[in-house]
Amino acid sequence: MDFIIPFVGTLGFGGLMGYGVGYAAKKVSKLALVAMGLIFFLIQYLVYKGFATVDWGSVAEAGGHAVKSGGALFWKVVTYNVSLGAGFVAGIILGFRKG
User: pLDDT tens for residues 26-73?
Assistant: First the structure.
């Protein structure tokens, strides 16, 4: 029974940290979406008034690349030097759902 106690502590800590990461990631992503919506509206208003022109195909292509590389970077930073125990991964999932 003594050999189980270190694993329980690690799972609990990993789960708590994962929950915090998941919760924060959800909140930050919501704020980012609001900011993107406001920026899009501003740009569209400038296009509507004739002050600017936008090649939306190029914007979409650049945005797709940024999302792919940003997601990979997020996961690399979050999991750096952390044992990917079940507690951490479960904590991220629960935190993201709650956030």
Answer: 899 899 889 989 998 998 999 999 998 988 888 888 877 777 777 777
User: What number of other Cβ atoms are within 10 A of residue 7's Cβ?
Assistant: 11
Residue with tokens 């990979």: 72
**Whose CA is closest to 42, among 54, 29, 25, 30?**
54
Is residue 96 within 8 A of residue 23, CB to CB? The reply is yes
Instruction: Report CA-CA distances (Å) from 71 to 1, 13, 51, 64, 74.
Output: 40, 24, 34, 11, 5
- CA-based torsion, 86, 90, 92, 93: positive or negative: positive
pTM for the predicted model, two decimal places: 0.64
> 96 and 26 in contact (C-beta within 8 Å)?
yes
> Could you state, in order of their start, the residue ranges of all structural domains in the chain?
12-98
Percent of the chain scoring above 90 in pLDDT: 15
Residue 19, sorted as left (phi over 0), alpha (psi -120 to 50) or beta, turns out to be alpha
